[in-house]
Specification:
Number of domains: 1
Structural class: alpha+beta
Order of helices and strands: HEEHHHEEEH
Shape: globular
Number of helices: 5
CATH superfamily: PAS domain
Strand order of the largest sheet: 2-1-5-4-3
Radius of gyration: 19 Å
Helix content: 40-55%
Length: 148
C-alpha cells in the first residue's frame, strides 16, 4: 500500500469511527476533531479546532488535567495508551458526561508533538452502575438494621 492510500485509509477510519478522535498539540490546542467528537461533545470541528482542551474539561478538573497533560508531554510517558482512563467531560450544552479514553503520543523525532485521544461516552453505563451501587448499599443497610 503506497503512502497516499495509507493516508486516505487513516482519514476514512478517523472520520468514520463513532468514537471521538481528538488530537491536541503540545500546548493543548485542538488540531483534529472528528465526527464522533462532534456527536459526543456537541461542538462542530469548526467550533473546536484551534481552541483549548478546556472546551471539554469540567472547570474544577482543569488544574489537575493540565498538570498531568504537561507532565506526559514533557516525559513522553503515559500509562493510558493500553488501559483506558475514566474521566468526566462537559458538552457544549454544559451537561456533564462520563468518558473513557486512551491516548497515543505523537512524536517528531524524540520530542512529543501532541496527544491523540479516542474517547467514548459511557454516561449511560456509569449511571446504571451508580444506581446498582446505591441499591446494593440500601439493601445492605436494610439487612443490618433488621438483625438483632
Amino acid at each position: 500500500m503506497d503512502e497516499s492510500a495509507r493516508d486516505r485509509l487513516c482519514r476514512e477510519i478517523v472520520d468514520g469511527i463513532g468514537d471521538a478522535v481528538v488530537f491536541a498539540d503540545r500546548e493543548g490546542i485542538i488540531r483534529l476533531w472528528n465526527g464522533g467528537a462532534e456527536r459526543v461533545f456537541g461542538y462542530t470541528a469548526g467550533e473546536a479546532v484551534g481552541r483549548s482542551l478546556d472546551l471539554i474539561i469540567p472547570e474544577g478538573l482543569r488544574k489537575r488535567h493540565w498538570e498531568g497533560y504537561f507532565r506526559v508531554i514533557e516525559s513522553g510517558v503515559t500509562r493510558y495508551g493500553a488501559e483506558p482512563l475514566a474521566v468526566p467531560g462537559v458538552r457544549k450544552d454544559g451537561s456533564r458526561i462520563s468518558l473513557e479514553f486512551s491516548i497515543a503520543l505523537l512524536r517528531d523525532g524524540t520530542a512529543v508533538t501532541g496527544a491523540a485521544a479516542v474517547l467514548r461516552d459511557v454516561t449511560a453505563r456509569w449511571l446504571k452502575d451508580k444506581e446498582l451501587r446505591e441499591r446494593l448499599k440500601a439493601l445492605e443497610a436494610g439487612g443490618q438494621g433488621g438483625a438483632g
